[in-house]
Amino acid sequence: MARDRVAALIDWVQGELGTAVTSHARLGGGDVAESYRFELADGRRVFAKTHRNPPPGFFTTEAWGLAWLLEPGVIDVPRVLGVSDGDPPALLLEWIEEGRPVAATEADLGRALADLHRAGAPSFGREDRRTTGSRALPNDPCGSWVEFFATRRLLPLARLARDSGALPDDTIADLEAVAGRLDELGGPVEAPARLHGDLWAGNRLVDRAGRSWLIDPAAHGGHREFDLAMMRLFGGYGRECFAAYAEEFPLADDWERRVPLHQLAPLTVHAIKFGGSYVGATRRALDELR
């Protein structure tokens, strides 16, 4: 079966690009998709991934997100070369040859991310209303961040955590209580920013010139502090990145005190998926908001 899937993927890649695949290799990484490098007869190298049982619209949603991030022309994102939600379900991207950071890598990313956020979004959420992430969180457009973060993130996650038994009852109750206090906790009102939506360090590649590329987005309109909080959750970004961001697009006072608030959504997702230390981490983030 695995050979049949790869053969179908090869046929699809050849059809999309109009050239033969001369070799391929399975790549590591990714918790849901199977990724491959393809060498082509015309000398190109491309990246493709497929999925054994994707939810509806899985790859077209990601492709839309990549194109949306690329649209302002301010940050590097791999170009989509082909996409299919049919048979095989697949996404085909330009290949990024990975390298090492240089002195300017972090600051350049900070400025580019500021420009991306400043490019804005039509609403909080997605105009196509497609879900994102492994828990299929809703993205129906909202007029305010308070409404979006409460009804499209915290409350759905509280329901999922209750249904799965992932979090203790008191933790779920506190999560729901925070959803009702966002006017108080969220800081000054801001317009919707154009977010990557899942910006942990594993979703940033650095090429051989030291340039940063963003991959695997859960793109939507949201609060820009969300991307920054996600970047701080697991580390991997330098101080120069945050400093350059703040210089280019200054943040509201006390934004760092709101990091636990924005981290609640990804922490709860991880508690639902993996349990373990993420249960306690979710509790600690809630305690910081008392």
Topology:
Layout: H1 2-17, E1 21-27, E2 34-40, E3 45-50, H2 58-70, E4 80-84, E5 90-94, H3 105-119, H4 145-164, H5 169-179, H6 182-185, E6 193-195, E7 204-206, E8 212-214, E9 220-222, H7 224-233, H8 239-248, H9 259-274, H10 277-287
Antiparallel strand pairs: 1-2, 2-3, 3-5, 4-5, 6-9, 7-8
What does this structure look like?
The structure is a single chain. 43% of the residues lie in helices and 14% in strands. The mean pLDDT is 96. It has 290 residues and is an alpha+beta fold. The chain has helices at 2-17, 58-70, 105-119, 145-164, 169-179, 182-185, 224-233, 239-248, 259-274, 277-287, and strands at 21-27, 34-40, 45-50, 80-84, 90-94, 193-195, 204-206, 212-214, 220-222. It has 2 domains: 2-94, Phosphorylase Kinase, domain 1, CATH 3.30.200; 105-287, Aminoglycoside phosphotransferase (APH), C-terminal lobe (Aminoglycoside 3'-phosphotransferase, Chain: A, domain 2). The protein starts with a helix and ends with a helix. It is built from 10 helices and 9 strands. The longest helix is centred in the middle third of the chain and has 20 residues, at 145-164. The chain has a 5-stranded antiparallel β-sheet. Strands 6-9 form a two-stranded antiparallel sheet.
